[in-house]
Amino acid sequence: MHHFQYMDNVLYAEDVPVAAIARKVGTPFYLYSHATLTRHFKAFDEAFANIRHLTCFSMKSNSNMAILRLFALMGGGVDIVSGGELYRALKAGVDPSKIVYSGVGKEAADLEYALESGILMFNAESAQEIQILNDTAERVGRRARVAIRVNPDVDPKTHPYISTGLKENKFGIDIQEAVRHYSVAAGLKGLTVVGVSCHIGSQITRVSPFVDALNKLKELIEGLRGIGLGIQYVDLGGGLGITYDKEAPPHPRDYARAIGRELKGLDVTLILEPGRVIVGNAGILVTKVLYTKIKQEKIFFVVDSAMNDLMRPSLYNSYHAIQPVTIRGRETVRADVVGPVCESGDFLARGREMEMQEPGDLVAVMSAGAYGFSMSSTYNSRPRVCEVMVKGERFYTIREREGFEDLIRGEKLPDFLAVDRAVQGQGEGQ
Ligand SMILES: *Cc1c(COP(=O)(O)O)cnc(C)c1O
Questions:
Q1: Does 404 fall in a domain?
Q2: How many domains does the chain divide into?
Q3: Residue 180: its pLDDT value, please?
Q4: In a 10 Å sphere around its CB, with 0-12 CB exposed, 13-18 middle and 19+ buried, how is residue 51 labelled?
Q5: Which of these, 89, 271, 391, 427, could form a disulfide with 34 (CB 3.0-4.6 Å)?
Q6: Quick check: bond before 209 cis, omega within 30?
Q7: 17 and 62, same structural domain?
Q8: Binding site membership of 339 for ligand 1 (Cβ less than 6 Å)
Q9: Mean per-residue pLDDT, 85-104
Q10: Are residues 299 and 216 in the same domain?
């Protein structure tokens, strides 16, 4: 459920017609609903009300500071995967004692930054990382609270690019070898072992893979406690799916109930790292039709946003519903919705049945709140689009549209290429 609905054939975001926002900020733009963000965070967090837990929003799914701030004010923490994300989170006022740090390639400088910031926990993913974390902690005179991210080898039955908990994936330490690594970590002066963690994948639409993973973690915890390690936290990662098309993922309540059952008597604090399930359906990408190309074989709607703005269709062949911002009752056609980028893989939708569009019409790419803006780039030298949050009858730009000058920020011409040097063959030797 979200707050992007039609009234008299006009698409609204909460109480504002989407077209009115487009008139003000131009296109394309990401548009988030404050009410939806709030409701999704609450629905998730409150589902676990009976379990000692911490909801750490996985900010790689959407790292806009206004959104981080909103969740922080609701008591949420964050799951970070880089020093840059830590910087954003701290700037947004996230409590460091609610930050967990995941990621397969953490750099020493970022580990140091996180240590100095006093984050809750590092989810270490390799023996070498455990050593570097320890060295860094000893050097700065702090102890790092650490969990090992184990790979429980369960199949989340999702897209291969977003499944992370299988043996062949690059993430985590094989669960069979975990005890050995825990023993090493426990003997290091810079570390305090506090938890176990896993993250098995994304866009998971059933509860059973999570339950399977948790059961494997439980066995591990018993083993670790058996050798005297105090395990206080179980981090189950994120991964709960959403409805893009016809998927029917479990409600967070069902997810929480299944997890709660398994956790009974374990005496741990549960950490959750939801991303997509909170923000995915709380955002849309609004884009304008530039051209319609009616070829013999096909109809193309060329719109002003592209794979650089929303990468998921090109990267994962993901489905995003496309809805007209104004329903005009025209004939239904089958069309490809494509962007201006010079790649055949640049599409937002393929073979989609939808109302005929004309140049200047606006369409909304639905379910674009997660892994949308945060994965965007400036490929083809396209400035990044703006982000807007609507709240009731008002809307706020929460990230400005970039301009051409942003595209070249930081680029430098070496002296021998300076622009004020005469170009050879021009104005010379006449
Ligand atoms: C990406 C990621 C998440 C969030 O996944 P969602 O599917 O968006 O919920 C959580 N934890 C880790 C470690 C991740 O890499």
A1: no
A2: 2
A3: 96
A4: middle
A5: 391
A6: no
A7: no
A8: no
A9: 98
A10: no
**Could you list the residue range(s) of the whole structural domain that residue 328 is in?**
4-29+280-395
The structure's pTM equals 0.95
Q: What number is the average pLDDT over the span 293-307?
A: 94
Nearest CA to ligand 1 atom 10: 238
Cα 169 to ligand 1 centroid, rounded to whole Å: 14
DSSP H helical ranges for 74-177: 83-91, 108-117, 127-140
Q: Ligand 1 within 6 A of 77 CB?
A: no
Residues 76 and 161 in one domain: yes
The CA 180 to ligand 1 mean position distance, Å, reads: 26
Per the structure block, which two tokens stand in for 101?
């740090």
199 in Cβ contact with 169 (< 8 Å): no
Q: How far is the CA of 6 from the centre of ligand 1 (A)?
A: 32
User: Quick check: 265 and 225 in contact, CB under 8 A?
Assistant: no
**Atom nearest to 240 CA in ligand 1:** 9
Q: What is the pLDDT of residues 142-164, one digit of tens each?
A: 999 999 999 998 888 776 666 67
Residue the block writes with tokens 């990382």:
129
Tell me the H-state helices in 149-207.
178-186
Mutate to test the pocket of ligand 1, among 55, 102, 374 (most ligand atoms within 8 A of CB): 102
Give which of 333, 306, 352, 329 is closest to 10, Cα–Cα.
329
Tell me the per-residue pLDDT of 380-395, one tens digit each, with 9 for 90 and over: 999 999 999 999 999 9
Same domain, 272 and 357: no
Same domain, 299 and 388: yes
**Cβ(274) to ligand 1 under 6 A?**
yes
What six digits make up the tokens of 257?
């109930």
56, 198, 342, 386: which is the annotated catalytic residue?
342
61 lines ligand 1 (CB under 6 A): yes
66 found inside a domain = yes
**C-alpha pair distances (Å), 91 with each of 88, 94, 95, 96, 273:** 5, 8, 10, 11, 20
Instruction: Give the pair of three-digit tokens for residue 39.
Output: 């409701």
Give residue 58 CA to ligand 1 midpoint distance, Å: 6
Q: Which of 279, 311, 333 is the last residue of a domain?
A: 279
- Each residue's pLDDT tens digit, 161-194: 666 766 777 788 999 999 999 999 999 999 999 9
Question: Are residues 274 and 284 located together in one domain of the fold?
Answer: no
**Does 172 contact ligand 1 (Cβ within 6 A)?**
no
Q: What pLDDT is stored for residue 424 in this prediction?
A: 65
Q: Same structural domain for residues 274 and 289?
A: no
Q: Which two tokens stand for residue 238?
A: 């994120």
**198 is known as an active-site residue:** no
Name the token pair of 63.
Answer: 């790292």
Whether residue 54 is predicted with pLDDT greater than 90 in this model: the reply is yes
